[in-house]
Amino acid sequence: MSKDISIANKWQQLKNHTKARVALGNVGTGLPLSEVLALKHAHAMAKDAIVTKLDVEGLSQKCKAQAIPYQIFNSRASDRLEYLKRPDLGRQLLFNTNLKKTEKVDIVFVITDGLSAKAVNTNAFKVLSHLLPKINESYTYAIALVQQGRVAIGDAVAELYRADFVAVCIGERPGLSSPESMGIYTTYHPKIGFTDERRNCISNIHSNGLSGKQGAQLLQYLIEKSFALKISGVSLKLEVGEILKS
Amino acid sequence: MAYQFTLGKQNYLFDDLKSVLAKASPLRSGDALAGLAAASNTERIAAQYVLSELPLKVFLNEAVVPYELDEVTRLIIDTHDFKAFDNISHFTVGDLRDWLLEYTTSGQNILEVSKALTPEMVAAVCKLMRNQDLIAVASKIQVITRFRNTVGLKGHVSVRLQPNHPTDDMKGILASTIDGLLYGCGDAVIGINPATDSPNVTVNLLKMLDDVRLKYEIPTQSCVLCHVTTALQIMDKAPVDLVFQSITGSQKANSSFGIDLQVLKEAHDATLALARGTVGNQCMYFETGQGSALSANAHHGVDQQTMEARAYAVARHFDPFLVNSVVGFIGPEYLFDGKQITRAGLEDHFCAKVMGLPMGMDVCYTNHADADQDDMDNLLTLLGVAGCNFFMGVPGTDDIMLNYQSTSFHDALYLRKVLGKKPAPEFEAWLLKMGIVDELGNKRIVGDTNKLLLNL
After folding, report:
1. The pLDDT of residue A1 is above 60
2. Please, is A133 exposed, middle or buried when counting C-beta atoms within 10 Å of its C-beta (0-12, 13-18, 19+)?
3. Distance CA B245, CA B315 (A)
4. pLDDT tens, position by position, A183-226
5. Cβ A17–B169 below 8 Å, yes or no?
6. Which phi and psi angles does A117 have, rounded to 5°?
7. Nearest Cα to Cα of residue A232 among A163, A192, A185
8. Mean pLDDT, chain A, as a whole number?
9. Maximum CA pair distance of chain B?
């Protein structure tokens, strides 16, 4: 047999130090079939995550149940294909006649699909249900559910609500190991046209990453710091390890 | 100057040279996003006809990015080899295409005029060439570079071992490094993309890689792909072999990367002075990729393939050891699917080789692009045939730090086998000495007594 798939013990031990796909063995020049299929499975999950849809129904129910004012929006990207090809359209709000008048709030939470709707369907309320009871006393807020949105659409939503702070919960680009990872981008005094250096980011909220509770802790920190210092972005450092320890 | 062409009964007008270039480019999402792509298939062909009849001299008189505005244009014009251009100054772009393909034109002949060719001329001829032409011409050209080994020889193909880790964990990176060496990878460079741009982390990673290299006497070079200014800052306290930087095709776009030609020159001079190479001292490593200028909103209305070729003018000014495009990393809004990534990969390799660069390729894709491992197998094989200097080697194709898929250690085994290519000669001798491969170049079974696995 030319197969090298009965892998030497010492070689296998490399796996103890990294999640990278090391010590896989080989069949001739190829990968063992089990590894080929595992890789294809991971890729399939990532591809499937990209075409999932924002659960507008379910998320609306959650808002209603907690009596949070909410509204449903669309970006100017009409479908996934256009969304992928035209990031500019995913940053702009589609204004239609159904829009209700928006009361001014301190904070608007935007929940949008990004590149994995599944990520926010699963994780957005895991964060918000920990966070909202802690900020109820201090801030007014609303939720915007946005279909086919990119990060910067939060600025457009915030202008509509005349909000002082926006937190965009968005599905991150699915990796092979994390098809449903959510990120949260926050901006103080958001304006259309802001770029990334004005934003803070909490990344990697998913079942093998940061928990909903940890995400809420970090988000609460960013809210309090941003309102106290009146800033967001590169000048506001987020030391994840330090905050989660405290 | 405006250009026009009548195709069938339709007359097509083009405002200027950059518009002809953009509309002649094979379709890709990034040019459509920028609003530069041809409006129809026939308009694209009309633009290609215009291009085919354009004298090369036109490119010296009409800059696509103004000379006064842009130091990359100034570099291109000021370093143009007028003397070598004498031999081809009567060519149209179409003539250049034919000359490149002629049996009688050798790779050496092409390299002799390479500094007479501006990136815009090379981008133009590329747009008139089919994938097959891009492979046929590139395969003639041999660009050899040297540091601690020799990369780019005909019949050889090298691999950058890319042992990234999401938290720069030393043991994690070491594990992936050892794994890659056990598959015969790492002759182009052992190159880590650090998760943060921390100077301390960079120093520690460089020391770790250098320890491994010295301990096993590996004839290769290492690199931590930090920002060039970080490398300059730590050069006196860390073993720096190659200095890395991402570059692109306009001054404004380079400035969004935090660099200009001056800082690249400083880095090049400082790294040369370290003189750590043994068989040579080419010490710069550059990465590029179509779409990067547009993504920085600094493309000046120029199509992404032409902007990419302009980045090669920057690269060749600093005599690099390695250059590669990270072709599929940028995402579907620039290169939508496997077809567009494949075309771009072949274009980038061709243009860089014609311009005299030691070109490799990160054959890769992200999960939101319409591409998969089969597309990568195809592009890897095509570029192998085209004589690409090196590829990436990532454990199981899955880069757990950058979250994209590149080529794997296994892909290197495959490519060397089907094309009968070998690693860099110095490195191949080491692989034999260490018992990692046999005389046929086949990977040996890894046993518990393997030297690389002892004293981990």
Report:
1. no
2. exposed
3. 10
4. 999 999 999 999 888 999 999 999 888 999 999 999 999 999 99
5. yes
6. -60, -35
7. A185
8. 93
9. 76
* CATH number for the segment(s) B145-433: 3.20.20.70
Mean per-residue pLDDT of chain B: 97
Of A14, A35, A40, the CB nearest to B175: A14
Element (H, E) at A57: helix A56-65
The tokens for A230 are 């009146």
Q: Which residues contact residue B16 at a Cβ distance below 8 angstroms, ignoring those fewer than 6 apart?
A: B1, B2, B3, B62
CB contact under 8 A, B398 and A173: no
Q: Do A8 and B448 touch (CB under 8 A)?
A: yes
Q: For residues B359 and B395, is the Cβ–Cβ distance under 8 A?
A: no
State the sign of the Cα–Cα–Cα–Cα dihedral B136, B137, B138, B141: positive
pLDDT at A244: 85
Mean pLDDT along residues B65-73: 98
Question: At residue B348, what are phi and psi to the nearest 5 degrees?
Answer: -60, -45
Chain B interface test: which of A26, A113, A195 (most B C-beta within 10 Å):
A26
- Check the CA dihedral B436-B438-B443-B447 and report its sign: negative
Contact assignment for A26 to B396 by CB distance below 8 Å? no
Phi then psi dihedrals of residue A111, to 5 deg: -110, 115
Tell me the pLDDT tens digit for each residue of B150-185.
999 999 999 999 999 988 999 999 999 999 999 999
Domains and CATH numbers, chain A: 68-245 (3.40.50.11240)
Strands B398-399 and B404-405: antiparallel
Range(s) within chain B of domains with CATH label 3.20.20.70: 145-433
**What is d(CA A84, CA B33) in angstroms, rounded to the nearest whole number?**
11
Confidence label for A6 from pLDDT (cuts 50, 70 and 90): low
Within the 316-335 window of chain B, which residues sit less than 8 Å (CB to CB) from chain A? 332-333
CB-based contact, B413 to chain A, within 8 Å: yes
ipTM summary value = 0.94
Tell me the fold of B3-138. Answer: Annexin V; domain 1 (1.10.220)
Q: Does B456 lie at the interface with A, CB-CB under 8 angstroms? A: yes
Cβ-proximal residues to A135 (8 Å cutoff; 6+ apart), any chain: A107, A141, A220, A223
B404 three-state secondary structure:
strand
**Which residue, chain included where needed, has tokens 């809004």?**
B333
Confidence (pLDDT) at B168: 93
Nearest CB partner across the interface for B413, out of A17, A20, A26: A26
For A70, A168, B174, B201, B432, the CA distances from B165, given in Å and listed in that order, are 40, 27, 10, 12, 29
What is the rounded distance in angstroms from the CA atom of residue A80 to the CA atom of residue B171?
40
Is a pLDDT exceeding 70 seen at residue B385?
yes
Q: Contacts of residue B395 in chain A, CB cutoff 8 Å? A: 18, 20-22, 24
Name the minimum distance, in Å, from the CA of A84 to any CA of chain B: 6
Confidence of residue B186 (pLDDT cuts 50, 70, 90): very high
Strands annotated E in A40-158: 70-74, 107-114, 141-147
Q: How many CB atoms lie within 10 A of CB A9?
A: 10
| Residue that is written with structure tokens 């079942």 in the block | A207
Looking at chain B, which residues constitute the CATH 1.10.220.70 domain(s)? 3-138
Grade residue B118 by pLDDT with cuts at 50, 70 and 90. Answer: very high
State the Rg of chain A over Cα: 21
Which residues of A lie inside 8 Å of B (Cβ-Cβ)? 4, 7-11, 13-24, 26, 28-31, 35, 39-40, 42-43, 46-47, 50, 84-88, 115, 173-178
Bridge partner residues of B92 (DSSP)? B55
pTM of the complete model = 0.94
